[in-house]
Design a protein that fits this description.
Elements (H helix, E strand, L loop, with lengths): L20 H9 L4 E6 L5 E5 H12 L17 H16 L8 E15 L2 E15 L13 E19 L2 E18 L6 E4 L3 E3 L7 E18 L2 E18 L6 E3 L3 E2 L5 H4 L24 E2 L1 H7 L4 E7 L2 E3 L2 E15 L2 E12 L11 E10 L7 E11 L4 H10 L8 E7 L7 H10 L22 H4 L17 E5 L7 E14 L2 E20 L8 E5 L5 E5 L28 E25 L2 E14 L21 E2 L6 E10 L5 H4 L2 E10 L3 E2 L26 E2 L3 E13 L5 E9 L7 E4 L37 E4 L4 E9 L1
Parallel strand pairs: 7-11, 21-26
Antiparallel strand pairs: 1-2, 3-4, 4-5, 5-6, 6-9, 7-8, 9-10, 10-15, 10-16, 11-14, 12-13, 14-20, 16-17, 17-18, 18-19, 19-22, 22-23, 23-26, 24-25, 26-27, 27-28, 27-29, 29-30, 30-33, 31-32, 33-34, 34-37, 35-36
Amino acid sequence: MPLLTDTNIFRTQGAASGNNQNSILGALAANPGVVPCINNPNGTVTPLPGPNCAFVLQSLLTVDPNANLVPILGPVQGPLQTARNGFIVNQFENNGGLFPYDSRLYLASARLDHQFSDRNQVDLRYNFGHDLEQNPDVTSLTGFSRGSDVKAFDHTILGSWFHQFSATTLNDLHAQWNYSNFDVIPNVPGQVGLDIPGFGDVGTQIFLPSLTIMRRYEGADNLTLIRGKHTIKLGGYFLYRGNHTESHTFFPGRFVFGNLPGGLLSSCLANPSGAITGNPLTTGCGLAGALSPAAINSIQSVALGLPQFYQQGFGNPIYNYPRPYAAGFVQDQWQVKPNFTLNVGLRYEVDGQYGALDTDKNNFAPRLSIAWDPFKNHKTVVRAGYGIFYSPIYGQIADVVQTLGLVNGVRPIAQVFVPLTASPVSSATIFQTLFAEGGANNVIACTTPAAGNAACIAPANLAQFGINVTNTGPVPPGSALFSAQPGYRSAYSQQAEFGIEHEIANGWAVSLSGIYVHTIGLPVAIDSNPTTLAPFVSVPLANGSTATFRDWAAVPGSPCGALLPSPINPCFANPVLLQNNVYSSVGSALYEGGILEVKKRFSSHFSILANYTLSKAFDDTTDFNSDFGPVDNTNLNGERSLSSFDQRHKVVFATIADTGHVGGPVFSNFQFAPIFRYNSGHPFDLLAGADVNGDNHSTNDRPIGAARNTGLGPDYIDFDMRISRSFKMGERANLQLMAEGFNLFNRTNFASVNNVVGPNFGLPTAAGGAGATTFNVSGNSSLLPSQPLGFTSAYPMRQLQLGIRIGF
C-alpha cells in the first residue's frame, strides 16, 4: 500500500494544498527588512531579516532528515527536530509497500436428519468455520504498523424437534450451542499511535489487541394452532450471551496531530501583510500585497512536536459479563375472505444488561400486515404492513461503561488525556520529552514493549511529568470518563410498507412499493462537560455567508479563558475533566424509499430480475464511538443531515439463462448468470483535523461553517458473470464446472475519500482559508491520496475464479 505517495508532503505547502506557506516564504525572501519572525514559547519574538526568516521558517516547516537546523526555539527545534524528521520519513517509507493480504476461509458441516414417524422428526447439525485475514485494514493512508490480522473460529451445534400433535396443532423446538473466538492481532504490538489526518496513521491501533471468546446458549419453541380461518402462532426465545474479552482499549496510546494556527510559530504566517506593531499578540509581518495567512499542517506539527492531544489507558483489559436476552410473541393469520388475509401480532423483548446500564423492560412490538387480491383473479396483490422492531443494545456500550467509567470508585482502565493547551504539562511537553530520551529509551519509536508492560509507554515514563496513573481514589485532572444515561433504552424503529404487484403476462410481474422506517433511540456519545455558557462567535465565509458556532476555546476576553485542566471555568461542568462522555439513546434516523421491480419466473430456460430503488436517509449520528460524537455536544440537532448510509439511486439487473439439452454435446447444459449493479455515492463528512471549537474533541470537528455529510462519495458500477456447465456421471452423480468473473470491465470503483480538508476550508483566502465557496464537494481522481479530496482506497479490480462441484 502506498502510504508515501509523494515526497512533496514533506515540503512547505502551496496554494494547491489550500495552504499559503510558499507565497509567504517567497515574499519574505524578497523583503530585506527586519520582521518579527519567530514566536517563542515564553511570549517573546525573535526578529530576523526577511531572507533569514524565510530560510528559518522553511527549514522548520520542511520534514528533512538531513537538515542542519539552528535551534531558534531552543534545542527542541534544533537537532531534535532533525531527529523527528528522520523518524517521520522512516515511518512513511517503512509503512508503505507490498504486504500480504491473504484471506482464507475454511468451512465444514455435518447433518443428521431422522424421521421417527409422520408426526416426529429430529435434526442435528454441526457447523465449523475458521477465518484468517491478513491486513484487511491496511489502506493508502493506513500504515502497516496500524494494521492487523484477524483470526476467527466458530463451532455451532443445532438440534431441532418437530412434533405434530394433530393436523391443526404443530410444535417446533430448537436448541443451539455456539462457541467462537474472534481475535484481532496488531501487526506491531504496543507501539504508540501517531494519527496524522490527511497523510497517514501509523503505530498500533488504539483498541488492539482484542481477544474475544463468546459462548452462546439459545433455545426457542414455536407452537402453531390452526382454528378455522385463523392460524395462530405463539412462542418463546431465550439467548444467553457469554462474553470474555481482553481488549487493550487505549493501552498502546496515541498522539493525535492536526492543523495548527501559523501564529504558533510565526506572526509572518498568521498575519503576513499586517502592520508591525511591536506587540507580540497583535503584530503583523509588514509584507507587501494582500497575502493570506498560512497554517501548520498535521505532518509539520509532528516535526515540530506539537500533538493536539495525547491519550493512553492503563489497567485491566479483561471483562467477562454475560447478558441474557428473552422474547415472546403471538401472531394470528386470519383469512378474512378468500382474497383478503390479515396478520396481527405482538412481540415482547427483554435485553438484559449489567452494571450501570439499565435493562429496558417495556419493549412491546405490535405488528400488522395485509395481503389483498382486489380483482380475485390471482394476478394483482396489494400488500401493506406496519410494525415496531427493537434492536439489541450493542454489547460494546455496556463494556465501555464498565471498563472506562467510574464503577464503585474504581476506574478499571484509567485514562491519561492531555491536550496541547494543558498547563504546565501539555501533550507537546510529553511528546518532545519522550522522543528526546533517544536510543533504546525513545518510547515513541519503540515497537516492542518491555517485559511486563502492555505498551511501549509505561506509567514509569509519565511519572517525570507528575502524572501518576491510579485506578482508584480521586479522578485525576485531565481524565476522560464514560458513563450511561439514566434510563438508557433500546433503539427501535417504526416500519411501514405499501406495495402493489401485478402479473402482466404469464410468468412476468411488475411491482411498485414504498418503504418508511423511522428509528428512535440510536446510541450517541455526548460529552456532558461542555456547557451552554460558552459564547457564540461569527466568522465570514468565502461564499459571502456567515458561520455562527459556539466556541469553548480559551481566548482572551472569553469566559472560557482558563486553560484546562483548571478548577475554574464556567464553560465546562467539571473543568478538571477533559471529557465526560455519556452514552445516550437520543439519536434518530429516517429512511424513505421506493422500489420498482420487474421479474420473470424461471421458465423457458431463463429468468430475469430488474429493480430500481430511489431512497433518501437522514440521521443525526454515525457511530456510538466518541470519536464520532456531535461537533457541538449541546446541540445534537445540529448533526441532522443526510445519513452516511444514504444511497439515492440503486439499480440491479440479473438474469439466469441455460441452454438445457439444446445445442448437442458441445453447447448443451450451459448456464449463464450475469448481474449488473449501479449504486450512487454515499455522503461523507468533511473533517477539520483540529479542535475548531475548543471542546477538547478534535477527531470529529468539521471546517468552520460546514454542515454534516456535505461531501458526496463516488458512484459504484459493477458487472459480474458466472458460466457453468453440468455433466452427468452415471445415474446418481453429476459434475459441474464453473467460471466466475467479478468486475469484468475492470472499472476503478473508488471506496473512500481523504475527507480532512482543514478547519479553514470555507474561509476567504484573505483570512487564511482555502476559499471554497461550497461544502458540497466530491472526490477527485487527479489528486493524491494525501491531498484533501483525493481518493484513498478502491474496491477490487477484475477477479476471476474457477470451480468444480461434484454432486452425488
